[in-house]
Structure of RsbT co-antagonist protein RsbR:
Amino acid sequence: MEQGKILELFSSSILQNTSELAQEMLDSLMVQFENELSKEEARENALQTFSHLVTIVGKGLIDDNVWDKAETWGEEVGYISVQTGGDLGGTIKSTTLYKDVITTFILTMAEEVKLPATSLIEVVSRVDRIITITTYGFTNAFIKHAEELIKESQSQYLKISVPIVPISNDIAILPLIGEIDEVRSGILIEVALSVSVRQRYEHLILDVSGVYMATPLVIETLQKLVKSLKLLGVSPLVTGIRTELSKSFVESGVRLDEIPIYTNLKQAIDHLSH
């Protein structure tokens, strides 16, 4: 029998026994994760997931285009593992169980039909490659989750690094310090506006003495912040502006005469106090 026909034979047999193979996978998994699969709903969901995997393997024996679905399946299972507190190592380890179930089925069938060793190796190798592809999906899911956690941590850190200092019930200071990139720019504006509205500040002093690079993004950030504050009924004041920053404002078409500017914080506070 030619190899193509052999693959079709095993593909058809695997697909015909999808339910039984999926149940075997579930039974094997329950030995290791009995607590996680103690609820009937969890077992039913797992059974559907394994049925999908068996279908992918069965079809994948004769159609390489199905292999992409193996990675998608792995990613979906990876996300489930992430949501339930699983770890990457345990998730990848579980692929051994899936592979053992299908390989055992193939070996049993191969013995019944007296399949030559060379043909058996081809069938088992294709199954192995399909299962291996699922691990790429697992890894992608955990990597994306880790990246999301990093972004969330960065966002929280950046929000903390936007210290709005109240000096009275209606006046506060926002000191801008260090480099301002796109991420920090967005968070800076978001926090400044939300805190000003929440605390009902009438004036917000933007102290830019700690900004040393007058980049286009710095200018754009200040411009957006000033305009947004005005729209919310909060009067912005700028202190500590350096010569190069002032020139950049002018070159960018920002009207400095529309913004109260003071040499230092003391001057701004003295002005607001009178």
